[in-house]
Automatic annotation (TrEMBL):
InterPro entries: AhpC/TSA, Peroxiredoxin_AhpC-typ, Peroxiredoxin_BCP/PrxQ, Thioredoxin-like_sf, Thioredoxin_domain
Biological function: Thiol-specific peroxidase that catalyzes the reduction of hydrogen peroxide and organic hydroperoxides to water and alcohols, respectively. Plays a role in cell protection against oxidative stress by detoxifying peroxides and as sensor of hydrogen peroxide-mediated signaling events.
Thioredoxin domain span: 3-156
Species the sequence originates in: Simplicispira hankyongi
A GO MF term: thioredoxin peroxidase activity
Protein's UniProt name: thioredoxin-dependent peroxiredoxin
Amino acid sequence: MAIVVNKPLPEFEANATGGVKVSNISHNGQVMVLYFYPKDNTPGCTTEAMQFRDKYKDFVKLGAAVFGVSRDNMKSHDEFKEKLELPFELIADTEEKMCHMFGVVKNKIMYGKKVKGIERSTFLIDADGTLAEEWRGLKVPGHVEEVLKSVKALNALKKAA
């Protein structure tokens, strides 16, 4: 089942670093940021993770949980998390269940060959488990600030309601 903005997320469950289980209902009552990235320890993914790390306290102040998602295994995630001192957990989607559900698996051309890769994308889920906003095929510079602004806007809407 595909995800759609302004609709509840379909059921899913995934394992993250730190022994954390993440699902469509595990963080109800809290805003959740899921950012999908191609691979641990690559230049763009390292930069993106560090930018989320550097703004993490701002997300926490706004009541948001942040999770990075890639197809890398738990061992790779643990090492990446430790190396960059990431304060948030990383989801190991080795079977690509979440990647397919969120529609981030794309055909790419690398060195003249067609390969399946992950399109860098971020999803903002509101406290009720509804997809509030999505960014697909994004560029890293300035992106984390944009997500932070959207979390603030979401919180402002909730207070106004």
